[in-house]
Each structure stands twice: as structure tokens, then as C-alpha cells.
Amino acid sequence: MSDRKPVYGPDDWHADLARELGAPGVFPYTRGVHPTMYRGKLWTMRQYAGFGTAEETNARFRHLLAAGQTGLSVAFDLPTQMGYDSDHPMAEGEVGRAGVAIDTVDDLARLFDGIPLDRVSTSMTINATAAVLLAMYVVVGEEHGVGRSKLQGTVQNDILKEFIARGTYIYPIEPSLRLATDVCRFVTIEGMSFNPISVSGYHMREAGATAAQELAFTFANGLEYVRRAVAAGLDVDQFAPRLSFFFAAFTDLFEEIAKFRAARRLWARLMKQNFHANDSACRLRFHTQTGGSTLTAQQPKNNVVRVAIQALAAVLGGTQSLHTNAYDEALALPTEQSATLALRTQQILAHETGVPETVDPAGGSWYVEALTGRAGRAGAARGDRAGGWRGARGRAGAVSGSDRAQRVRTAARDRVGRERGRRRERVRGRSDYPVRPRARLPGARRGAVHARGGDTRETGNGKREAGTGCPRARRARSRSAPDRADARRGAGAGDGGGDLRRVARGVGGVPADPVRVFKG
């Protein structure tokens, strides 16, 4: 049973308008981080893509850009995320499977072949090896004639959420945090138009957190990064404006709108109170991805509607960048057709609905404002109870009881409630309105109609990579993993350190024997 009232009115929202809302583009940024928001510039349509080889992903990038995408977002395969070359035994079976395989600077150069890096911003979803991939990107840019100051984009570099929600970390917490802070220092000192960290609540939400927990864990991590950067000698007013965030958009439309509005207000106040940051450093800019865990493998075309609603929530909530999931992601990596349809969802929202014409159109609603206030209070309270990131660390540097147990309990309650039919929303296509088998017409070819619902594409039980919202590919590939590893060796993988020395020359600051240093 929902705890929301059937009707909201003036008694549900008592607030100082100037303090709680203000104007768009003005502290505390509840109504948006820019005065004109989408009337001045639309959000960046940044579809997350990556699979197989650099050449295959480059072809997908080119297709999406030709279809109207306005930014790139790179998905890397698990070996790349964990620092393994494609020919390493630990990489077998995972090369190019859940993202693109990148082993060398040459691979990255092929990934961006023919793409103008000075005119397209690039987001790289990479964490444990973020410093290496950013260094490679700098070198590729310079080889394209694009200097560091002209490169635009984001490197995720959020290692704390890997310890909490995903697990793709390499080093213990303290060395990992030092490396993440070094990336912030490099980007700041070099004057790059690059976001050195994207503090990610998305993965916590996908791992079972509620909307309030998503804010709490995200801001606990974000404050820790700011503390580390300040302790390393960086000026908060200089580097904090380049911090970015990454949130999930689920299907509860008004809860999500309120969450995004509350997030801006809460982060602005936290930065002001804890670091006396200027207004620019208090602005929360964020990317949104629609909820991967909300997609169903059964009746997957229903996911088109879910994604459209989630995208609407992100836009009404004032996102700066958006990825919309493809409807078939619960079954396999998106096809070219489904990826295009996902992009078209954003374009229809931008150009046919009139939603971007007004700044914060949900603002002032008694219902939305009441939810916004509640979301902010709940996020702050849960963050205080968890004791921030420091309170969630165990003696050995691994994540201990508080946050992980809280997420697990939430996910378990959610599953039990759904199975017992007590959850507020019923998931269509799982239990309600199942697709009934079609009667086979006389003379129809045997096997032409699937016994469980007619369309063979309407069934499946695809699995997802934990916490990412990105599916593992279920379809067979044309070459085996050893064959692909051989191909990557021919492209220069495992070159005995020559590639790392090339990066060292381009970026500077890497010792003379980078192979020994990077291999520990």
C-alpha cells in the first residue's frame, strides 16, 4: 500500500520559496542548474554503447551520430575494466562481450577513427583503470591534433561505488582513492574541459537501493572525493565545478522527478556547509540512465513504454545528459534497430512534446514539492545514519555492514513484496496479462510459432552484469574468444610495455619503467 496521500494541497507544502526553490540557475538550484535550461541548450543525448572490437563499436558510434546522437558513451568489456589484456587467461570468454575490448592506444585510436574529438564529448564508463584510459584518450586526441584543453567529456573514475555495488576494483581502497584523486589533480592542473569523476548512484539503485538510499550513498561518496582532493591541495572552487554525477531513472514518475530536484538542493547545501564552496562549485550536474533492472525479458516491447516514462522523469527532473535503454537489453546487446529506437525516444521527447519549452514545469506542484522535500530529508537522514563513506568501511578496507546490508535488505523486501503481490506497482508482462499461446493455423510450418507466446523474440531470461544495468550478450559470436585474443595480439596487445611508454611520453609523470609500476 502506498504511503502517499490521494490528494495534496497547500497544507502539504509549507516552505520559504526563496530558500527552498529560488530561481533556475541560482543557489540552491532546485529548479535547475541553468537559468534557461533546455530553452538554451537541450540535454546531451548520450547513448551507452560498446561491444566486440574497436572497429565494431566505431561503426555503432558512427551510426548513432548519424542518427542524431549528440555525445558518446563508451562501454568497456570486463577485462578492460579489470586491467587484463584480451589474451590473458582470465579474459577468456569475456573479450568484447559486455563492452568494447581496449588493450592499447592503437585500439582506442581505431575506436574513435573518423570522429571529431574536438566537437563530440566522450563519456568513458571506466573506474579501476580510469587513469590509464584517460591517458590513452589524451594521446589519441593529440595524435588527432586535438590538445588536452579542447577534449570534452567525462571519465567515471568512481572507485568507491565499485567496492559497494559492482566489484570491478583492482587495488585496496586507499591506493584506489589516491589514484582517483590523482586523476582529479591532473585534469584540474591541465585545465581540461573534462569531468574527472562521475559519482554514480545508478549502480547502487540497480543493486537494490531505494531512491533515498541512492542519494545518500552517492553523496557520501562524493563528499569523500572532495575531502581527498582538498587534502591533496586542490582548491574546491577550482575543481568542484567539474564534478559530475550519474543517477538512475525508474518508472515511478513523480518520485524520480522529486529525487532529481532534491538532489540538486541537497548537494548544494552540503558543499556550502562542509567546504564553504562558491555557488559554481555547489552546482550538481548529472547524467541519467533509464533503469536497466526494470526491463523485462518477457514481452520486451513493453520496455519501450517504460523507457519513455523514465526518460520523461529525467527531463522533468532537469538532467544534463541522458541514455535511454533499448527495449531488448534484457535479452541481448541492443541491435542497431533497437538502439536507434531508444535514441528516437529522446528525440521525440525533445522535439514533439513541448516539455523542454518551460524550465522546471513540475515546480510548484503541491505533490511534487512535498515529494521533493521528503526525498531530500530522507536522503540526508540515511546518509547521516550510515556515517558517510568512513562509517561504511571495514577494518581491512572492504565494505562492511551498514550500506551493503541495507541494500540487500531493501532488495529482498522488494522481491518478496513483488512475489506476494504487495508491491504498489504490478510489473506487466511478468505475472499480469501473460501472453497466451496462439492457436497454430492449419498447415502452418511446425515451429513457426513459439509455444509460449507466438513471437520468439517475446520470451527469454537474459542475465545482467551485476549492478550495471547493462546486459551480457546472449548471442553467439562469429569468432571464439581465443580467436579474438589472437586477433588482438596481432593488433598490438601485450607489447611488453611499449604502449605504456607511449602513454608516458604523451602525458608525462610516469616513471621510466611503467611496466613494473603498473604491474605492481
Please summarize what this structure is:
The protein is an alpha/beta fold and 520 residues long. Helices cover 42% and strands 8% of the residues. Strand 1, helix 2 and strand 2 form a beta-alpha-beta unit.
Mind sketching the topology for me?
Layout: H1 17-20, E1 44-49, H2 54-66, E2 71-75, H3 78-82, H4 105-111, E3 122-125, H5 130-143, E4 152-155, H6 159-166, H7 173-189, E5 193-195, E6 198-200, H8 202-206, H9 211-231, H10 236-239, E7 244-249, H11 253-275, E8 286-290, H12 302-316, E9 321-323, H13 336-351, H14 366-386, H15 388-391, H16 401-419, H17 481-490, H18 498-507, H19 514-518
Number of strands: 9
Distance between the termini: 54 Å
The fraction of residues assigned to DSSP E strands is 5-15%
Give helix % range: 40-55%
> Widest sheet: strand order?
5-4-3-2-1-9-8-7-6
Q: What is the overall shape?
A: globular
Q: Indicate the mean pLDDT.
A: 81
* Helix-and-strand structural type: alpha/beta
Q: Quickly count the helices.
A: 19
Main β-sheet: number of strands, strand sense, barrel status? Answer: 9 strands, parallel
User: What kind of oligomer do you see?
Assistant: single chain
Element pattern in H and E: HEHEHHEHEHHEEHHHEHEHEHHHHHHH
**Model regions low in confidence, pLDDT < 50 over at least 5 residues:** 391-401, 437-520
Gyration radius, rounded: 23 Å
